[in-house]
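Entry: 1-deoxy-D-xylulose 5-phosphate reductoisomerase
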Amino acid sequence: MKKISLLGATGSVGVQTDNVVRHHPEHFQIVALAFGENVDKGLELIHTHRPKLVSVKNKETADKLKGQLASPVKVVYGLEGLIEVAAYPEADVTVNAVLGSIGLEPTLAAIAAGKIIALANKETLVTAGHLVMAAAKEKHVPILPVDSEHSAIFQSLNGEKQSQIKRLILTASGGSFRDKTRDELHNVTIEEALNHPNWSMGAKITIDSATMMNKGLEVIEAHWLFDVPYEKIDVLIHKESIVHSLVEYIDNSVIAELGHSDMRLPIQYALTYPDRLELTDTKQLNLWEVGQLHFQKVDMERYRSVKFAYDAGRAGGTMPTVLNAANEEAVAAFLKGAVTFLDIEGLVLQALEKHHTIQHPTLETIRMVDKEIRRAVQEAIRQR
Ligand code: NDP
Ligand code: MG
């Protein structure tokens, strides 16, 4: 029986984790969970899993939740609450599926407490990959990828030596606007951007997929997870999202992981690794039914966010923190209707260009830069 602490329980990955756990009650148990403000969904999850500790976004939500709880559960809130859930003593695994760089300190706390980390929260690795990986190494804690591309790479690496890897190839669906030209992106709406062709995900990551910043963030995530330099990480557009990513070896042999788009598979694999379990209502992949698979090079002028991410990753230091914080703020503003789709890119670029990289940043420095950049982006939006 694996005991799980689940952060971001009410979100897209959180709910699919709940589904995996409910499929295998003999293997998994959720002992602590955290969410933001969705009390209705939170109550449903508390009722199903009966966790001993629950954390929510703020005091107001905590009070609201306490007023509706049928049985006594310890309720905490804020970043401190999130950290308490992440490091919950009884848990073996911490699934981090919270949204954004707020996930960083909980991840570090879970590592310090010796938990296995199942990581969906890619912003954690983008904003402070060097700190997270160093802490995990020191504590001998595995960081198991939940992100489907990284899970595919993890499965395709199959324990081969680092020196035998020639390239990691991340596939990208191209998002909601794959077939639009850059000019056609000027007037796209929030609803259009939220309409992802292959995956059903939270709002922020769906927008990130449309700008392809998601792939940029994933390049940085792959760099840290697999300790591979940026020159050896490529992105390939693959509209069917059947090939989830590939590893090329020095003998030019390529190994990939394939399947239908279903996040429950990488979630479950992170929970069962190195074993596998059945997942009854998933769809079997019959390639004869799919028929054709398409692949295309990424045009870095069309998808500038991918280039920004490579540049920020290579610059290192605080630059990826800036990339991530600016992007989080810009996407949130787009989702509120405060800026246009192409403004997202513009705001990120502006933040990157203004920043002077600080190399080897501490957690304090990262926190400070993250805050400063968010403030600067909000200011830039107000001045428009
Ligand atoms: P969602 O927006 O669907 O869910 C986010 C979750 O985080 C919700 O439970 C939300 O709570 C909670 N949350 C947000 N802010 C806070 C806060 N301040 N304190 C506590 N909880 C908070 O996101 P996704 O599930 O789509 O994505 C989660 C992470 O996984 C992201 O990093 C994303 O990049 C990554 N990921 C997602 C994939 C997907 O298929 N969705 C695929 C691969 C990676 P509430 O809603 O109750 O306010
Ligand atoms: Mg992904």
